[in-house]
């Protein structure tokens, strides 16, 4: 855990993730999509991000996160933690006790969103033969998602927080096959407009970290 510009950000190896939801998705919300191109693949991700941005539940969550507020405080094995409620569930905000929040700071918005995602979503690959593209509601209720799903959630939340533009950054580590995707969001930090990579699927990652040896990279708008 480290402090940046009065915002506290948690690395992705330090969060107690909610493993009670890390089982197979219920049959009614699994769907198999076939994609013929990278643009088609990211287009399906974009469609789910758009649905998520329109969801009152996610809007409620983001509004609390960027204000540093919560719906309630609940007693857990880790003590009393602030939670936000949506879709009939409670979700830890991921905000460390006493962590200050500056709603005007893009960096604080990014850290608040990041902390919430790593507190509530574990990285897990899709079931064999399936490529799931989950909305925010489905993924947060499940408690897990792969790189596609986490990109959907992060870009939708960033957009609702007023951060733009938002991209899906697709990379190839061998120069032949696309191997990974993660969110990249626009922010104003220290007076400069920058693009901030967000990839909590890698243990120990922090906002701004990304793979440094990609052979091919493409950013597609979300």
Provide tags for this entry:
C8orf32 fold; globular; three-stranded antiparallel sheet; alpha+beta; 11 strands
Structure overview:
The protein is α+β, with helices and mostly antiparallel strands. It has a single domain, classed as Roll (C8orf32 fold), CATH 3.10.620. Helix content is 29%, strand content 26%. It has five helices and eleven strands, in the order ββααβββαβαβαββββ. It has helices at 38-53, 56-67, 106-120, 136-142, 147-160; strands at residues 2-4, 7-9, 72-76, 79-86, 89-92, 122-123, 144-145, 166-172, 180-189, 192-198, 216-221. The strands form four sheets. A four-stranded antiparallel sheet has the order 10-9-8-11, with helices on one face. Strands 3-4-5 form a three-stranded antiparallel sheet. The chain is globular.
- The helicity comes to 25-40%
- What radius of gyration results from the CA coordinates? 17 Å
Compute the separation of the termini in Å.
29 Å
Low-confidence stretches: 1-6, 14-33
Gross morphology: globular
**Pattern of helices and strands:** EEHHEEEHEHEHEEEE
User: What is the name of the CATH class?
Assistant: Alpha Beta
Strand content: 25-35%
Please report the total strand number as a whole number.
11
Domain tally: 1
Could you say what the CATH topology is called?
A: C8orf32 fold
Tell me the major beta sheet: 4 strands, antiparallel
Major sheet: arrangement of strands = 10-9-8-11
Q: Structural class, judged by helices and strands? A: alpha+beta
> Whole-number average pLDDT?
81
**Number of helical runs?**
5
CATH architecture: Roll
Could you give a short description of this structure?
The protein is α+β, with helices and mostly antiparallel strands.
């Amino acid at each position: 855990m480290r402090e940046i510009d009065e915002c506290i950000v948690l690395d992705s190896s330090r969060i107690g993730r909610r493993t009670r939801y890390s089982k197979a998705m219920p049959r009614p919300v699994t769907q198999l999509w076939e994609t013929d191109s990278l643009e088609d693949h990211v287009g399906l991700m974009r469609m789910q991000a758009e649905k998520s941005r329109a969801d009152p539940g996610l809007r409620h969550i983001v509004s609390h996160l960027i204000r540093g507020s919560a719906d309630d405080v609940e007693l857990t094995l880790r003590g009393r933690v602030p939670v936000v409620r949506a879709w009939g569930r409670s979700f830890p905000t991921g905000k460390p006790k006493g962590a200050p929040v500056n709603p005007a700071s893009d960096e604080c918005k990014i850290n608040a969103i990041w902390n919430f995602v790593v507190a509530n979503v574990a990285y897990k690959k899709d079931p064999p033969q399936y490529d799931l593209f989950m909305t925010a509601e489905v993924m947060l209720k499940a408690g897990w998602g792969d790189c596609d799903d986490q990109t959907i959630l992060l870009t939708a939340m960033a957009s609702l927080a007023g951060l733009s533009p938002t991209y899906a950054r697709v990379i190839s580590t061998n120069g032949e096959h696309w191997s990974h995707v993660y969110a990249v969001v626009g922010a104003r930090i220290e007076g400069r407009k920058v693009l901030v990579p967000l990839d909590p699927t890698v243990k120990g990652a922090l906002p701004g970290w990304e793979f440094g040896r990609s052979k091919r990279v493409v950013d597609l708008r979300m």
